[in-house]
Every structure is written in structure tokens, then in C-alpha cells.
Design a protein that fits this description.
Number of helices: 3
CATH topology of the largest domain: YmcC-like fold
Order of helices and strands: EEHEEHHEEEEEEEEEEEEEEEE
Helix content: 10-25%
CATH architecture of the largest domain: Beta Barrel
Radius of gyration: 22 Å
Number of strands: 20
Strand content: over 45%
């Protein structure tokens, strides 16, 4: 027997959302996902607020206690605004990609063992070094393609070791996993990332492996990029939701390592940080050579390639 709060085995809130986004061609799963994520975000904000209030009530000084309550309310309003902005950003993605569920079919036999896409080649024993001058100091990014492989969803992925140094100190240590399909598209299957401060691991946020806990792989570089191509780089709700759009095919770029023509320019955005826009440039035969953070205009540019 159905209870009053369930319909066809679903909570009425969920069933109501499904009815609201049903279209002539079926259910808009992209919008359903966005709406459910919005509810999760709001619930998390409320949970954090009440935990903060609980801590405030343990402050004996009345003035300090009231200040704590006001700060908790301000933080709640900020968090709810972030939830709203993330929802709007997800809706933009839905409008571009359509309402189908994002669940790419991965057939291991459709993948090859080498990655030779001209805009994203990964040759073992090749190390690329990038440098940026930032508000926090000099950031160096050392990206080494290894001989190591990891099997994910039955696909043998190349492991890339990516280490970030800030003023000479390691602040991030990541293993990324990529694979190329027979058409030449390079897929991103996950990462194991460690955020480091003072020599200690302080966070593993951002780590994911396709096929685990709802994580889905995405494409890092198309075989034949074309203006207007729009695709997911990864899909891990509330953790990694980067999307890419090809906005240039014949860009000229000069960095410390050299000058390059016919570069592909990709705009990278994420629903998790709606105000952040990054422009990445990929040179044929080389790969990524320049990354521009548009809000800050910081340049992360290629300075050296080491081939062992």
C-alpha cells in the first residue's frame, strides 16, 4: 500500500520534480539532477547553520554569543546564495547538453593503449613544467607522464603525476588517469589528489574514480575539435562538474617555452564556481601550453619539457 508521501515508490517531492520537468520527449534528467543537487545544497547549508548555532549557545559571554549567532546567519545566507548560483550554472549546462542523463557507455574494446592525440599527447618519460606568478607567490606545476597504468571500468588508463609547488613547497600532489578511444578522443577517468600544507595532507577533495559512487568519466580533448563543441570533462556532483567549450582553433600563443600557432582554445567552467572561467590553449604536437584564469588574469605557462 502506498503511503501519502510516496508515489510509485518515490517520495512525493521527487515525484513532483519529475512531473515538473517531464517533456514531450520524456523526462529531463539533467534538470532533475540539478534540482536534487539544489535541495542537497540547501539542506547542507541549513545543517551547517544549526551546528554553528549549537556552538554559539555554548559561549557564556552574551555579546560574543550574539555575534556568533549573527555570523552563523550571515554564513547561511551566503551558502544559500551559492546554492542558487550553482543551480543556475547547472541549468546553463542542461540547456547546452539537453535533458538526457549523463551516463556515457564505456566499452573497453573501443580504447587503445597509447595517447597520441596531437593536442593532448601523453608519452611516458615526458615531463612538462609550468610556472605562474600568483598573489600567493610563484606556483610551479610539474606534470610527468609515467609508465604506470590503472584499469578503470575495464579501460587501461595512463597515469600522470601532477605536483604543484607554491614558493618551492609542495601544496598539491595528484595522480591523473587518462585513456584514448579509437576515434582519438582523450578521456579523463579520475584522479587521486592530495592537498598539502606544512608537509601534511589536509584534504583529498577532488579525488574520484569513474564508476565509483556515481562518478562519470568525461572528455579532456576531442579527436577533431570544432568551434562550439561543448562537453563534460568530468562529472562528480558537488565535487567535479567541469565543462569545456571549444572557442578557438587557430590561436597564436607565446610562452616561456616558445611560440605556437594553430592552437586550440578551450573555455573551461564549472557549476561549483560559477564566476570562474579558465581559457586553456593546446598546441599541436605539444599539448597544453597556457592556462589563463580570467577573473585574476593569472598565467600558468609552459616553461620546459624534459624527455628522458
Amino acid at each position: 500500500m502506498k503511503t501519502l508521501w510516496r508515489m510509485n515508490g518515490l517520495p512525493l517531492a521527487v515525484a513532483g520534480m519529475m512531473l515538473a520537468v517531464a517533456t514531450a520527449g520524456g523526462i529531463d534528467f539533467c534538470r532533475l539532477t540539478s534540482q536534487a543537487a539544489l535541495r542537497s545544497c540547501r539542506a547542507g547549508a541549513q545543517s551547517d547553520y544549526w551546528l554553528a548555532i549549537a556552538k554559539c549557545e555554548n559561549i557564556t559571554d552574551p555579546a560574543a554569543r550574539e555575534a556568533c549567532r549573527k555570523q552563523a546567519l550571515t554564513d547561511l545566507k551566503d551558502a544559500l546564495q551559492t546554492c542558487k548560483e550553482q543551480f543556475a550554472a547547472r541549468q546553463v549546462v542542461c540547456n547546452r547538453l539537453g535533458g538526457a542523463a549523463y551516463d556515457p557507455v564505456i566499452v573497453p574494446a573501443n580504447f587503445v593503449t597509447t595517447i597520441d592525440n596531437p593536442y593532448f599527447p601523453l608519452t611516458p618519460d615526458t615531463t612538462r613544467i609550468y610556472v605562474a606568478q600568483t598573489a600567493h607567490g610563484v606556483v610551479s606545476n610539474v606534470v610527468a607522464t609515467t609508465h604506470n597504468t590503472v584499469v578503470i571500468l575495464g579501460v587501461t588508463c595512463v597515469e600522470v603525476h601532477d605536483v604543484v609547488y607554491t614558493n618551492g613547497e609542495v601544496t598539491e600532489d595528484t595522480l591523473d588517469w587518462f585513456a584514448q578511444d579509437k576515434e582519438g578522443n582523450v578521456w579523463y577517468f579520475g584522479e587521486n589528489t592530495l592537498e598539502i600544507a606544512g608537509g601534511l595532507v589536509v584534504s583529498v577533495e577532488g579525488s574520484f574514480k569513474a564508476g565509483v559512487d556515481g562518478a562519470r568519466p568525461g572528455i579532456i580533448m576531442k579527436a577533431h575539435p570544432a568551434i562550439g563543441d561543448y562537453f563534460r570533462q568530468e562529472f562528480v556532483l558537488e565535487q567535479g562538474e567541469d565543462v569545456e567549450e571549444v572557442i578557438g582553433l587557430n590561436e597564436s600563443v607565446t610562452v616561456a617555452y616558445g611560440s605556437f600557432n594553430r592552437c586550440v582554445k578551450i573555455q573551461e567552467t564549472t557549476a561549483l564556481e560559477p564566476d570562474t572561467i579558465v581559457h586553456d590553449f593546446y598546441a599541436p604536437g605539444i599539448g597544453p601550453v597556457l592556462s589563463l584564469d580570467m577573473p585574476s588574469n593569472e598565467r600558468l605557462e609552459l616553461v620546459q619539457i624534459i624527455r628522458n
